[in-house]
Specification:
three-stranded antiparallel sheet, D-Maltodextrin-Binding Protein, domain 2, alpha+beta, single chain, elongated, 187 residues
Length: 187
């Protein structure tokens, strides 16, 4: 969270309590000022500001592809070692419609950095956002697969309760996040 640390250096009087979770939280009951959400928003009772966007990429190392081949259709994913993050479904667009594919493999891990490292070492396929894989794609350590099924960009959002005005310190943090969050070269 280097952006948050930068913010704290600029405003040392601010106290930040950060909770990292993929579980939905009740901002009002939990007393939270702000949440950052990825993807499609479902809760219309919150105010939202789009900070940036991201795109998911299915990738594999050239060594993995040389040994096991490359999937060309979504149904072929079941024949591959898919390294799984927080969810065992990967999302795609097929014939203009959103589609999820259940995947499995030898590694389940909530750390994108660990999944990236395993994929670069040829252990399996990954589906991660561009900000994880951009450098590895550019360097040739990873190759993008199944691009014809890639979902469009999805938002990264700052959410806050509808009935709560953002305090100046929270508004400054939201503005800094919007300015400094990485933008993917590939999506």
């Amino acid at each position: 969270m280097p952006i948050v640390v930068d913010y704290m250096q600029q405003y040392p009087e601010v106290e930040i309590i950060s909770e990292l979770t993929n579980q939905p939280l009740d901002l009002v009951d939990g007393g939270y000022d702000l949440a950052i959400r990825l993807g499609r928003l479902t809760n219309s009772s919150m105010m939202a500001k789009r900070l940036t966007s991201r795109m998911q990429f299915v990738c594999a190392a050239p060594s993995y592809i040389a040994k096991y081949g490359s999937p060309y259709t979504l149904s072929e994913l079941t024949q591959h070692n898919c390294l799984v993050g927080n969810y065992n479904h990967w999302y795609f667009t097929e014939n203009g419609k959103s589609r999820s594919v259940r995947v499995s493999g030898s590694l389940v891990c909530s750390s994108g950095h660990t999944l990236l490292d395993a994929a670069k070492r040829g252990i399996g396929l990954i589906q991660l956002p561009g900000y994880y894989v951009d450098e590895a794609i550019e360097s040739g350590e990873l190759q993008v697969l199944l691009q014809q099924y890639q979902e469009p960009k999805e938002g990264i959002w700052a959410l806050y309760p509808h009935n709560r005005h953002l305090s100046p310190k929270v508004r400054l943090l939201v503005d800094m996040l919007a300015e400094k969050l990485p933008k993917s070269k590939y999506g």
